[in-house]
Write a structure and sequence with these properties.
Blueprint: H1 5-14, H2 18-46, E1 59-65, E2 68-73, E3 81-83, H3 99-107
Antiparallel strand pairs: 1-2, 2-3
Length: 111
């Protein structure tokens, strides 16, 4: 959304009826979850310092897959690719937008 459109959008939202707001809120929550999970993944990508397979520190960026930065280990004995979530409990999970809600449930002892 263009920055100039944001004030118009907010003014429109303020004029919505209670019923319309209740209908919009679940969609806004989905968008919020997507943004939060993207920020968490970007933070994890910035923190990658070594290969999770061999702990080698010579890394190169190797494109993107499913919105996540891939890395290539430059260690001649390894040469594996990985992303920031490899070797973590979040590796190979689908629906990244639900990771934060799932983590909150685990912290609260829910299934």
């Amino acid at each position: 959304m263009k920055p100039i459109d944001l004030p118009k959008f907010l003014a429109y939202v303020r004029r919505l009826s209670a019923e319309d707001l209740l209908a919009v809120m679940p969609e806004m929550r989905k968008a919020e979850q997507s943004v939060e999970s993207t920020l968490v993944i970007r933070e994890a990508e910035a923190a990658v310092k070594s290969c999770p397979h061999c702990q080698g520190e010579r890394l190169a960026k190797a494109g993107h897959k499913d919105g996540k930065q891939r890395f290539l280990c430059k260690n001649p004995a390894c040469k594996k690719t990985f992303n920031a979530l490899t070797g973590t409990p979040l590796a190979r999970l689908r629906m990244a937008e639900k990771h934060i809600d799932n983590a909150e449930c685990m912290i609260n002892g829910l299934s």
